């Protein structure tokens, strides 16, 4: 039997029993079994997802990954080079501090 594991977005690392199997989309040839196989999908910026697949026949499963709130958000800070046109800016907020 053939199991194809896809993810949205693609490129998630797929693990089984703690061992890395590859990245999505991933095609695996496995023996027929009524026992579900448990896969873990991991992708930076997204929640880890567990997916159980029963291989009684060839199957394609697509896993929708959920973005972690705040993942990928940019943090804006001062330039840190001291060249701020004579202004004093020593805070992480980027706001000017009166002299």
Task: Describe, in short, the structure shown.
The protein has 99 residues and is mostly beta strands.
Secondary structure elements and their pairing?
Elements: E1 2-8, E2 13-16, E3 19-23, E4 26-29, E5 37-42, E6 49-53, E7 59-64
Parallel strand pairs: 1-7
Antiparallel strand pairs: 1-4, 2-3, 2-5, 5-6
Strand content: 35-45%
Characterize the largest beta sheet: strand count, sense, and whether it forms a barrel. Answer: 4 strands, antiparallel
Cα-atom radius of gyration: 23 Å
Number of helices: 0
What value does the average pLDDT take? Answer: 82
Low-confidence stretches: 86-91
Which descriptor suits the 3D outline?
elongated
The run of helices and strands is EEEEEEE
Structural class: mainly beta
Description:
With 99 residues, the protein is mostly beta strands. It contains no helices and 7 strands. It has strands at residues 2-8, 13-16, 19-23, 26-29, 37-42, 49-53, 59-64. The strands form 2 sheets. It has a 4-stranded antiparallel sheet with strand order 3-2-5-6, with no helix packed on it. Strands 4-1-7 form a 3-stranded mixed sheet, with no helix packed on it. Strand 2 (13-16) and strand 3 (19-23) form a beta hairpin. The protein starts with a strand and ends in a 35-residue tail after the last strand. Residues 86-91 have low confidence and may be disordered.
